Amino acid sequence: MDPEGFSGPEKIVKPLTPEALAAFKAAQERTGVVYISRIPPGMRPSKVRHLMSAHGEVGRVYLQQEDPKRAYLRRKYTATKKVHFTEGWVEFKDKKIARSVAEMLNAQPIGGKKGTRWRDDVWTMKYLPKFKWNMLTEQIAHEAAVHTAKLRVELSQSRQEQKDYLKNVELARILEKRVERKREKGEEMVLKTLPQAKKRRLEDGEGANKRKKLENDTDRQLNTVLGSIF
């Protein structure tokens, strides 16, 4: 998980006794998670924790940063340079409190003292029944792995396209030298041409075969990468 979007107590992990492990599992079963579909601009995890703590004991808070491309354009064309978050998850120690908080605050103004930054912003949140924090971490890890696999496949395709381009450039250079030598000897180099109908059939067949081969190679590479990850 992105440390920029995480807000939670930092603790040293120690081995648990069977009794402590049972108590920990029971505590996890009592927790509830609230999903916030929109984070007001400029609001950070610590502020979300502070606001939610007024309604009940909060465990962990995670806010998802905006898309890197969108963040780049925003920093380039606006005066706002700080990190923005798009959505978030808040874990309450008691799922009953989590449900009541979501029902009470959804579609309501954030409020606060007059003149505060987010006073007129509106909460958009929902309680997630039977949803636990480990499900969120697994989802984020899976999305990161899939994204990495796609990047590897795209890079592999890009390298192959570059090799093909350089090969064509080299062939064109060799052909140009041959034409130049023929011209120096006073000879004329004639390139054989195929009949138009036959040429079209060959191009269509070769194009279909190349497309099919590229799709098979792409699927095979993606399966190989995903297999190595999972």
Keywords:
Alpha-Beta Plaits; RNA-binding; elongated; five-stranded antiparallel β-sheet; 2 domains; ABT1/Esf2; alpha+beta; RBD_domain_sf; 5 strands; 230 residues
Q: What separation lies between the terminal Cα atoms?
A: 18 Å
CATH superfamily of the largest domain: RRM (RNA recognition motif) domain
Roughly what is the average pLDDT, rounded to an integer? 78
**Main beta sheet strand tally, sense and closure:** 5 strands, antiparallel
Shape summary: elongated
CATH topology tier name of the largest domain: Alpha-Beta Plaits
Beta-strand fraction estimate:
5-15%
User: Which residue ranges are poorly predicted, with pLDDT under 50 across at least 5 consecutive positions?
Assistant: none
Helix content: 55-70%
> What's the CATH architecture name of the largest domain?
2-Layer Sandwich
Structural class based on helices, strands and sheet pairing: alpha+beta
Give an account of the 3D structure:
It is built from 6 helices and 5 strands. The chain is of the alpha+beta class and 230 residues long. The chain has 2 domains: 129 residues, Alpha-Beta Plaits (2-Layer Sandwich), CATH 3.30.70.330; 88 residues, no CATH class. Helix 5 runs antiparallel to helix 6. It starts with 5 loop residues before the first strand and ends with a helix. One of its GO terms (biological process) is small-subunit processome assembly. This is 18S rRNA factor 2. Keywords: Nucleus, RNA-binding.
